[in-house]
Design a protein that fits this description.
about 475 residues, single chain, Serine Threonine Protein Phosphatase 5, Tetratricopeptide repeat, mainly alpha
Length: about 475
């Protein structure tokens, strides 16, 4: 749900000087012109009912008055009649295809409805009509972002930031888009720019804190989030994020203090109870952990992680029947929860229920076939059952997967080193490391993409094109595996 602040941003952007003032406009009668100007004046004073009446009077006098349709659409939209607003903006854009504000407002109204695909066409037209219009670029970028078109989103948002270097909200949204691309350093820079422009921009401080957590910079994240806490001491999101940062630093007692503070403000927050339970668990305070996790489940039984963490805590206390019940709860909340099937299998194995244990372990493997630990445990259970041939097969697969995991870790290291060398301009070393990464992990999209960049800078255009093509293929495969966009 969009906040009221977003609605105010929308209003501020849409209230940009109407194109009809002081510019060439649709032909209209003197009476229509007078009513139109009255509508604009009423609109500026936020007297929308009177504005609507005035614009409709203008349209009775001159039905083809495009600017009056656009003005009517804006006032209808501000009264939450989005369907009426869309119809009015479409009429304006049809009557006068060069009317930028009609296309822009139509696109933003679709964005407000979360109809992102419908918003793209009008916003692209708005950009074509006025390439330097900051807001058109900004909303087009946001729509591309929501549709998963990350590179298109970044292109528009970067241009919006160039056009509006002093607009904090543009830098904030650019930072989010960069973080989604795992460009964390650049994301942090954009968010810091937003904060520099608007030191009271709470969302940007929270988002910067989360980006720093992604970089494993817990101390920097805590410092940023403490600043956010000073701005809004009772903001629930800030307290939650600060708790996460303290957990990453392993300062569990301080995390507990923040979650307890949050729960005094919002005692029905199931996620806060869950995180409080984890903090107690990490301090080996199992009694308090069980109490908090049980409370979380009572508030939100569909939270699979709470069931799972409760099961792990009970298993650590050798409370096997209760642990098995908790793992079954996790599976009920998330039927594809491979780790829950695995630990339920190990719990049943310890209880002597080998038949059901093997079934649970096989289901864990079906859901997550790349885990060597699952195969090792299955091998042990099968050996206990006396099925030695099947046990050997499971152990062999565990060995193969362990080697694969080693290769992936080496590929990640080579990719990171290659990117670093690329940034330093050491192209030969960059190509060497990134080529090694793609050999170790042929489906590493990031390695293929940066290898293409390095080869391109070396002037090896054919090889670079091949790397970029492979990166695009992998990105398309990743997108195809995602749920459909709204």
């Amino acid at each position: 749900m969009r906040s009221r602040r977003w609605a105010l941003i929308l209003i501020a952007l849409l209230l940009a000087c109407p194109e009809g003032v002081g510019q060439s406009r649709s032909r209209s009668s003197a009476a229509a012109e007078k009513a139109y100007r009255e509508g604009l004046a009423r609109q500026q004073r936020q007297e929308d009912a009177a504005a609507i009446a005035a614009f409709r009077e203008a349209l009775r006098e001159s039905p083809d008055f495009a600017e009056a349709h656009s003005g009517l659409g804006y006032s209808l939209g501000r009264q939450n009649d989005l369907a009426g607003a869309i119809a009015a903006f479409e009429a304006a854009a049809t009557l006068r295809p060069s009317l930028h504000e009609a296309h822009f407002r139509l696109g933003v109204t679709h964005w407000l409805r979360k109809a992102y695909r419908e918003a793209i066409g009008p916003l692209q037209t708005a950009v074509r009509l006025q390439p330097r219009h900051l807001e058109s670029r900004f909303y087009l970028g946001q729509c591309w972002k929501e549709l998963g078109e990350r590179q298109k989103a970044l292109a528009e948002l970067r241009e919006a930031a160039r056009l509006g270097p002093q607009v904090a909200e543009v830098h904030r949204v650019l930072g989010l888009a960069l973080a989604a691309e795992e460009s964390f350093e650049e994301a942090a820079g954009a968010l810091r720019k937003a904060i520099q422009l608007r030191p009271d921009l709470l969302e940007a401080r929270n988002q910067l804190g989360l980006v720093l957590l992604q970089q494993r910079k817990a101390d920097a994240a805590i410092a940023e989030l403490e600043q956010a806490r000073q701005l809004a001491p009772q903001d629930l999101a800030t307290l939650h994020n600060l708790g996460l940062a303290l957990m990453q630093k392993a300062d569990y007692r301080a995390a507990i203090a923040r979650y307890e503070e949050l729960l005094r403000l919002s005692p029905e927050d199931a996620e806060a109870w869950y995180n409080l339970g984890l903090a107690h668990k990490y301090l080996d305070d199992f009694g308090a952990a069980v109490e908090a996790l049980t409370r979380s489940i009572a508030l939100q039984a569909t939270l699979p992680e709470a069931h799972y963490s409760l099961g792990v805590t009970l298993l650590q206390q050798s409370r096997l029947p209760e642990a098995a019940k908790a793992f079954r709860g996790a599976i009920a909340a998330r039927p594809d929860y491979a780790d829950a099937f695995y630990l339920l299998g190990t719990t049943l194995q310890q209880q002597g229920g080998l038949g059901e244990a093997v079934g649970m372990l096989r289901e864990a493997i079906r859901l997550s076939p790349q885990s060597p630990q699952y195969f090792n445990t299955l091998g042990n259970a099968l050996r206990q059952q006396g099925d030695l041939a099947a046990a050997r097969t499971a152990f062999a697969e565990a060995t193969r997967l362990n080697q694969r995991r080693t290769d992936l870790q080496a590929a990640l290291f080579a990719t990171n080193l290659g990117v670093q060398r690329l940034q330093e301009g050491r192209l030969g070393e960059a190509v060497e490391q990134l080529t090694r990464a793609t050999q170790l992990d042929p489906e590493n999209r990031r390695a293929h993409f940066h290898l293409g960049q390095a080869l391109q800078r070396q002037g090896k255009r054919t090889a670079a094109a091949a790397s970029f093509k492979r990166a695009r293929q992998l990105e398309q495969a990743e997108k195809a595996a995602l749920p459909p966009s709204p």
